[in-house]
Amino acid sequence: MRALLVGNSEHPEFAVALCWLRAHLELTVSASLDLALQHLRAQENPQLILLVQSRRNEISQHQIEQLHRMAPLARLVGLLGSWCEGEVRSGEPWKGVQRIYWHQWTPQLIDTASGREPHRSKTWVLPRTTTPAERLLCAQEHHCTPQSGLIGISALSFIDFETLADACQARGLATVWLVEPGLADPDTVHYADLSAILCNGGTSHRQDVHRVTHLAQKFPGLPIIAVVGYPRLDDQQRLLAAGACQMVSKPYLLDELLTALEKSTGIFQDGTLPARSA
Fold it and tell me: Of 71, 98, 148, 246, which sits with the fewest C-beta atoms within 10 Å of its C-beta?
C-alpha cells in the first residue's frame, strides 16, 4: 500500500509504529504540509494519508482538506499522541478522520492497512462521514472461529474479572481468576495449564507495574498482557520491563484484546507480529 505520512513522526510515542510502517508500506514521510502537497503533485496518489500529531493543533482541518482535495480517494487516518486524548471531549477533533492513538495502532492500523483481516479492511471503502459506531458495526460483521485454552486473569474485583472473562469466552477460551494477593492456588491452577495471563490495571499505574512483576516471578515465561487505562509512554516501558509482553489500553475493542492474546500465546498465531510488540 502506498502511504503518505504528514507531521512530526520523530516523537518517541510513534517510534514502534513508524518502524512497522516503513517495513510494510510504501511510505513517504513529509514533515510539513508544503512537502506533502509537493509530493502529491509529483507522484501517484496514495491509498492512505496518515496524519501524525503529538499535540493538538499541529495540523489544522484546513490543511487536511487541502490534502484530501489533492488525493480524494485516500483514506485519512490520524495517529495521535497522548496529549490529543482530550480533544474529543473538550476540543475540536478533526472531521472525517479516523482517530488511532499511539497505544492503539496495533491491531487497528496494521489489520486495516495490510488487509490481513478482511472484516476490518472492508471499512477502508466507507465514506469519510462514517461515524465510529458505524465503522465498528461494519467491522464486526464476521464469524469468529472458536478457540481453546485457559487464560489466567489477575483482577482487583470480580466485576473486572467478569469483564475480561466474557471477552475471552466469546472466543471459547476458558478463564480462571487469579485472586489478589495470593494470585492462584497451585492445587487448583497449574502453571502448565495456562496459555497466558491478563493483568487488569487499577487506578495506579505504579501498582500495576508491581502486580506485573509479581506475576512474572510467579509464572516465569508465561505471556502476560497488561490491560491499563490511558497509559503514557513511560507506563508502557515500565510494564514491559516488569515482564509484560504486550499492553492493551482501555477503553479497548474486543478485537484488540483478542489479537493481543493471539500474538502472545500462539493460540491462533500467524506470525505477523513479534510477541514483544505493543
Answer: 148
Task: Classify 274 in phi/psi space as left (phi over 0), alpha (psi -120 to 50) or beta.
Answer: beta
What pLDDT, in 10s, does the model give residues 5-42?
Answer: 999 889 999 999 999 999 999 999 999 999 999 999 98
pTM for the complete prediction?
Answer: 0.79
DSSP per-residue letters across the chain: -EEEEEE-TTSGGGHHHHHHHHHHSEEEEESSHHHHHHHHHHSPPPSEEEEEESSTTSS-HHHHHHHHHHSTTSEEEEEE-GGGTTHHHHS-PPSS-EEEETTTHHHHHHHHHH--SHHHHGGGGS-TT--HHHHHHHHT-S-PPP---EEEEE-SSHHHHHHHHHHHHTTT-EEEE-BTTTB--TTTS-GGG-SEEEEE--S-HHHHHHHHHHHHHHSTTS-EEEEEES--HHHHHHHHHHT-SEEEEES--HHHHHHHHHHHH-TT--SSS-TT--
**Cβ–Cβ under 8 Å, residues 161 and 153:** yes
